[in-house]
User: Fold this.
Amino acid sequence: MALAKKGNPPVYSGRAGVKAKAAPGFHQVTVGGVGCGKWVAKARLTILAPPKPAPKVVKGTVTSKIGLNVRKQPTSGSAVTGAYRSRQTIDLICKKAGQPVGGNRTWYQVKTPKGWVTARYVKAHGTVPTCK
Assistant:
């Protein structure tokens, strides 16, 4: 818990962790270690949603001998947003069906540069989740 003291009379503000389930609204709060000891105050409790976990990234390797373009959309006619070298290791976020390339309809979303690459020329080193 981190609280900041401001003003006269002092007002303490900041964030605190709640160990039990709590409903939004006013609650009595006891804070220790501030000033000369503990104090009790009536405080408004706002419940924040827990942060979403970052998507698990799966590594992949570019298998094309001439490299691989990153596209804005999962089609070969979409604008190029970047490129990868042959045998480069890349981060695959998720997969979805798109325009077939060499009989393969799967496209992987990549973070940097932002866009899509065809799975036809990428070897995934794990199971890539389906995009939501």
Remarks:
- The radius of gyration is 25 Å.
- The mean pLDDT is 82.
